[in-house]
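Dear Dr. H.,

I hope your travels went smoothly. While you were away I took the liberty of generating a structure for the chain from your last submission, since the lab meeting agenda had it listed for discussion. I wanted you to have the full record in hand beforehand rather than looking at slides cold. The sequence, exactly as received, is reproduced here:
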Amino acid sequence: MAEILYYNPIDMDKYDRFKKIADEKNIKIVEVGKDHLDDKIGHLLNIEGFDESHTPAKEEDYDLDFDFILFNGFENEELFEFLDVIRENGAGVQHKAGITENNVKWTLRELLMENDREAKTMGLIHKINSLIEKAEGLKQTYGEDEKVTSLIDEILTYFNDSSIFEIETAQKYYLTLLDEVLRVEKENE
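The corresponding predicted structure, in token form, is as follows:
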């Protein structure tokens, strides 16, 4: 049976819609909160071989005040259909993942931290890509700006080697490119 581990619902109206949709599709919801952060995922989902042991917290100050869903036991088509339905009904959840043979061994805290880092990274990459597109549009309109072109080449080279990726460096690239795009816009007002 498909089930969803739901951590920390924040918007209760959205959560009620989510539960209704899950109920209509015979999907079990396992509700967990901050008091479960140091429990293993396998234990929280009652998977055989996982006991009730707790792992002491490593990063207590990490902000885990967001809602999160973890999918277990879904077929691909069923999962994508469910995601479409919750999104269409305003019940989508930004932070989500599927169960894996690795993350089942993690604590909820570890999974949430990793998922949040991934979400922030993907959001930043999307923002950088949008700025690159905007810079390309400015190039078409106003001509090439050597500083912007050089910076974009440097960014693309950086992103081609994932072994050196650090979010702080990517953030610096984003802010630098934003400044340069704004400069080009201002110079051409």
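Two observations you may find useful: Helices lie at 12-24, 41-44, 76-88, 108-142, 146-160, 167-187. Residues 136 and 174 are 15 Å apart (CA to CA).

With kind regards,
E. W.
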